[in-house]
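Record filed here:
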Amino acid sequence: MHKITELFAFVACDKDTGDEGLMAMQCGSWFLPMIGADMGRLEELKPIADRMMPGNYKILKFCLVGTIER
């Protein structure tokens, strides 16, 4: 397993209000946030995001600054 140094998140965008929210997909009775720590996972999630919010989402990249707790 590799060390996570960056994280990508799919964010839905409301064109009318400018509101944004973290996208999630339902798996059974659970909702899983659409986030990934590598480009492979990002590519797996893109088609799902395209079906959910065609043209109305963006991908944010977060980079490691420091560790809060171990």
About this structure: The two ends are 17 Å apart (CA to CA).
